[in-house]
Write a structure and sequence with these properties.
Nucleotidyltransferase, domain 5; binds 5'-O-[(R)-(carboxyoxy)(hydroxy)phosphoryl]adenosine; 18% strand; 2 domains; globular; binds zinc ion; 361 residues; alpha/beta
Length: 361
């Protein structure tokens, strides 16, 4: 089954063709990053206008790169939310129009379910993903810990009370005078810094909680920056590097500890990282270290031994970490497959079947 995926939930206009959920025939992403770098963040109206201009050429290119004409497509999948409504509506309108004109099924996809399925895009027949899986989805807008016991079935274990991890990276980068988007800039500065120079607070949200909070950490960095500016008048390159490294280490610590304690509790076979922040090399390395060393740290920093072993996966192709449409087509395929071929066609922005994530933010 060949599915054309469309994604416009934030600032990437993307279209892709994926066969049977795992074989990527094309993956076209038009990133608006240079446009939003000027304002240091996404301006919804500007993003929406750019989607309008890009959507048709991007879909066209996805079909061309897959060497397919539109008639060879079996269904059209589109991100229905959560995301910026003014951006979502462009993808949803394009997908609905194509589906109506071509009389193809339309499959609405939750954006976080899309991120989750990024790891299936690299699944090999000789190395199939084994359930149960715990997935940590960390991006600019989302921070969820999800248990999957089978395809297209999601149990939300924890989420953020305030900022998502990616948002915290972006805000701290701004405090340190680094560019947009902040994640890659913090990672670059951190590679030259001392992660142990500043002891930053880790919000653990109570014993056994799988929820997150990053606002206190952000305030702690703001206080450090204000103190340093009062003392020296400006931020030295050394201060910026050490601050970025300490911040990154703290965020990655909380994320990996919660991921692995959830994996132990729910007897997972695999642990996955997904979303824009899963591109972070320190996050990947720290998760690998803990999986191989068979431990995580509790809220007091004490090492807790893991009884089970887990396979760690994250998208090797960084294009599958940040927003893309291949992940949307993959999630659509496995949802349809689970429903026995029934395609959830219907009002895309108000699909009652997707209760878990049906808030369009
Ligand atoms: O998944 P995504 O493209 O969009 C959302 O669904 O929000 O994620 C974008 C986020 C941004 O906050 C960006 O700073 C972060 O992912 N990000 C990173 C890295 N690359 C992107 N964060 C940390 N380290 C990175 N290398
Ligand atoms: Zn995303």
């Amino acid at each position: 089954m060949k599915i054309l995926g469309i994604e416009t939930s934030c600032d990437e206009t993307a279209a892709a063709v994926v066969e049977d959920g795992t074989r990527v025939l094309s993956n076209v992403i038009f990133s608006q990053i240079p446009l939003h770098a000027r304002t240091g963040g996404v301006v919804p109206e500007v993003a929406a206008r750019e989607h309008v201009v890009r959507i048709v050429p991007v879909v066209d290119k996805a079909l061309k790169n897959a060497s397919l004409c539109i008639d060879a497509i079996d269904a059209i999948a589109v991100t229905r939310g959560p995301g910026l409504v003014s951006s979502l509506i462009i993808g949803v309108s394009a997908a609905s129009t194509l589906a109506a004109v071509l009389r193809k099924p339309l499959i609405p996809v939750n954006h976080i379910a899309g991120h989750i399925y990024a790891n299936w895009l690299e699944e090999k027949p000789s190395d199939k993903i084994k359930f149960p899986v715990i997935i940590l989805t960390v991006s600019g807008g989302h921070n969820e810990l999800v248990l999957m016991e089978e395809h297209a079935s999601y149990q939300l274990l924890g989420e953020t009370f305030d900022d998502a991890a990616g948002e915290a990276f972006d805000k701290v980068a701004r405090l340190l005078g680094l560019g947009y988007p902040g994640g890659p800039q913090i990672a670059k500065a951190a590679s030259r810094g001392n992660p142990r120079r500043f002891n930053l607070p880790q919000a653990r949200m109570g014993r056994g909680s799988f929820d997150f909070s990053f606002s206190g950490l952000k305030t702690a960095v703001l206080n450090l920056v204000n103190k340093e500016c009062a003392r020296n008048g400006s931020l030295s390159a050394e201060f910026i590097a050490d601050c970025a490294a300490s911040f990154q280490e703290t965020v990655c610590g909380v994320l990996t500890d919660k991921l692995l304690s959830a994996a132990e509790k729910f007897k997972a076979k695999e642990v996955h990282l997904a979303g824009g922040v899963s591109a972070n090399q320190r996050l990947r390395a720290m998760a690998q270290e803990k999986v191989e060393g068979k431990y995580y740290c509790d809220q007091n920093g004490k090492k807790i031994r893991l009884n089970s072993s887990f396979k760690l996966r994250y998208p090797l192709d960084l294009a599958y970490c940040t927003d893309n449409a291949a992940m949307v087509a993959s999630a659509a395929f496995f949802t349809v497959k689970k429903n026995g071929g029934h395609q959830p066609i219907g009002p895309v922005l108000a699909d009652p079947e997707l209760r878990m994530y049906d808030v369009v933010q």
